[in-house]
Write a structure and sequence with these properties.
- The chain is α+β, with helices and mostly antiparallel strands.
- The chain has 2 domains: 80 residues; 107 residues, Roll (Nuclear Transport Factor 2, Chain: A).
- The protein contains 6 helices and 8 strands; from the N terminus they run ααββββααββββαα.
- Strands 4-3-2-1-5-6-7-8 form an 8-stranded antiparallel sheet.
Length: 247
């Protein structure tokens, strides 16, 4: 007499089917775990745009933004809480690891941001998302790698969008600025751009070029030097003297 499932041993065919299903599931998880994720929010315009489309309504229609961060794993927006303007919350959309092995995408937030602003005037640090031309990101990444001129093949590892900070004569906040980090593993550079994604300057201090610097042979670096000074002292200072030498 054949035993029923509820009354005794499971039929061999059903046990075999369940075993095959379990093995297929485990194999799929192991395959995902052993295969590096090719998707990146830095080089996939569709993924980046989709992340923004989810985060915009999450932070609120009229919320102002303190910072936008983008890396290969996701997009993060720190935005003022419209219900309490002294608070800033962090929202993220990107990859997380499920069961320790399976990468999935999800949205998280709001998480409280503990503010430690160099310019303590929060309102002066905020900006509207619509003031940034996010469509320029792909072109800016290509231009930033070309501008950095690292000796080995390089990639963009991180992008930050925030208001520029001036330290003198007192900390103040300026225009919206992209900061694009370019890295080859041996060298690093930061390329700066305005809200439209147009490059305005570069920090090349961690490059081989900087170690062998000769400004007289690369006069275009004078503009980068001027931008760096402006970042520190601000745009309102009175110019009294300029000196340029090889170093």
């Amino acid at each position: 007499m054949r035993r029923t499932i509820g009354g005794g041993a499971m039929p061999h065919s059903l046990r075999s089917a369940r075993t095959r299903t379990l093995l297929a599931l485990v194999g799929g998880i192991l395959l995902v775990a052993s295969t590096p994720a090719k998707a990146s929010f830095l080089d996939n315009d569709a993924d980046f745009s989709f992340a923004l489309s989810l985060l915009r309504p999450a932070i609120g229609e009229h919320a102002r933004v303190l910072r936008v961060d983008v890396d290969a794993q996701g997009v993060v927006i720190e935005a003022q809480d419209p219900r309490n303007r002294s608070h800033v919350d962090r929202w993220r959309y990107g990859f997380v690891t499920y069961l320790g092995v399976l990468p999935i995408r999800r949205q998280s937030g709001p998480d409280a941001v503990h503010l430690n602003l160099i310019n303590p005037d929060l309102e002066a640090n905020l900006f509207e998302l619509d003031a940034v031309d996010f469509s320029a990101m792909h072109k800016l990444i290509e231009s930033a790698i070309a501008r950095a001129k690292l000796q080995d093949p390089a990639t963009v590892t991180h992008i930050e969008i925030a208001r520029q900070l001036f330290l003198l004569p007192q900390p103040t906040s300026g225009d919206i600025r992209w900061t694009v980090r370019v890295d080859s593993g041996r060298e690093r550079a930061k390329i700066h751009a305005n809200a439209r994604g147009e490059i305005t300057g570069a920090d090349l201090s961690d490059t081989i070029r900087a170690k062998n610097l000769n400004i007289l042979a690369e006069p275009e670096l004078v503009a980068d030097a001027a931008a760096a000074f402006r970042d520190i002292v601000g745009a309102g200072q009175v110019l009294t003297k300029i000196s340029i030498d090889r170093r």
